[in-house]
Every structure is written in structure tokens, then in C-alpha cells.
Amino acid sequence: MDLLLFIGLGFLGLLVAAVIVVGVAVLGFGTPVRDLNQTTVKSIIAVLSQVVWSGFVLLYFYVLVRMRTQAPFWRTMGWRGLPFAGQTTSLAILRCLGGGAMLALIVTFAGKFLNEKAELPIEELFRSRPTVILLMCFGILVAPLVEETMFRGFLYPVVARRFGMAAGVIVTGTLFGAMHAQQLWGGWGQIGLLIGVGIFLTWVRARTGTVAASYFVHLGYKSLLFLAFFCATGGLRHIPGGS
């Protein structure tokens, strides 16, 4: 029931978040309605809507936990210390970040063998410098925190308790990739790779017993991908097809 309720409220939250961002843009900043379909404006609204929705998600989890227990929120959501024996916390974090960077390299290399000719919807978000900067901030500072709390902290335990760890890893990873499918629609190979990323992140969480491990792996993965794009575009000065 918790899962079904979250899915229903999640879709509703997406609509509410979009309405809030559009309303602020039109009423607060005086953006003409006709400009909302411009690529840059539409992309900024899409990213900001994700930011607002992410806030809704964390608020929902916080209320859900507080309704049932007075235990520490983050620990209840699976955030515990990194369990690498004989290593300091800093070294354990670097180990996870390095694993995430290695995962990014593997995915990038594998993606070279995918002959996807269709333009992916997510490419619209990489055509203007302001949108890319906003997306980078969201992708590094917000997305790993919220997605790991949502998938590895909330969803994985729900599935694993009912169907076992293996099913929890596969189902959670698959749903992680499916959530991003709209951004990659038409790039079926990329969607498959992202499902693989989701399965790996969930395996890390299951293997270590803490969301903190999968979070730092996720953070290393995203950070290297954005760093590569930053370097490839000359510090965002030469964005392909953009400004």
C-alpha cells in the first residue's frame, strides 16, 4: 500500500510541480506564455520541476516516517555508516566515488557500440549554457540524494522483504531505468544501460547494507559524466547545436 500510494502521489506531484514552476515563471517573472515553448525556457522549466518534485518526495518520506516512528529519519531510510572494515570514512567514500567513476567509464565505452540514430529527448536539455549549468547542479547536488533515498532507501526494502534480495535488486534497478525512459525514449540501448546502472547501484546497497554506499557510487558516476561533458565542450563554450 505504501508503494501504490507513493506512485499515485508521485504522478500527482509531477503535475503540481510543473504547475508551480510555470506559474512562478509567468506570474512571478513575467515570462510570456508564448515563450514557454521555446527550447531553452521549456528545458529550464523541466529541470526546475524536477527540483520541486524532489522536494515533494523527501517531504513525503519524512511525513511517512514521522507518522510511524520517532527514530532518526535518515537512518530509517537506510542511510548508515559505510561498512568497510579497516578503512577510514574518507577512504571509504573515495572508494565508492572511484567505483562510480569506473561505472561511468564502462557505460560510456559500452554506449559507443550502440548505433542509435534517433535524437533523444534528453538532448534538448544540453543545448544552452544556462540549462546545462542548472542540470549539472541538479544532477550532482540533488538527484543522487533523492533517487538513492527513493529507490535504494524506500523501494528496495519493500520488494526485498517480500520477494528476496535478488528480486529486490533486479526490480529496483529496472524501475530506476524505467523512470528515466522518457528522457531516453527511442534510445533502447541507452535505456538498457541505465537499467544496468540501476541494478548495480541496488546491488551495492544490498551488499553493504547502507544507502550511503550507493549514493557515493551514484555521485561519482554522475560527476564524471558531467565533467566529461564540461571538458568536451571547452568549459561549456562550445555546446553542440546550442548557445
Give the percentage of residues in beta strands.
under 5%
Low-pLDDT stretches are none
| Rg of Cα set | 19 Å
Oligomer: single chain
Largest sheet: none
Envelope shape: globular
Order of helix and strand elements from N to C terminus: HHHHHHHH
Question: Whole-Å distance between the termini?
Answer: 46 Å
Q: Helix proportion of residues, in percent? A: over 70%
* Number of discrete helical segments: 8
Structure classification: mainly alpha
Number of strands: 0
Query: What value does the average pLDDT take?
Result: 90
Summarize the structure.
By secondary structure, the protein is mainly alpha-helical.
Structure description:
The chain has helices at residues 2-28, 39-66, 73-76, 89-111, 129-163, 165-179, 188-208, 211-232. By secondary structure, it is an all-alpha fold. It is globular, with a radius of gyration of 19 Å. The mean pLDDT is 90.
Task: Write a concise keyword list for the protein shown above.
mainly alpha; 243 residues; 72% helix
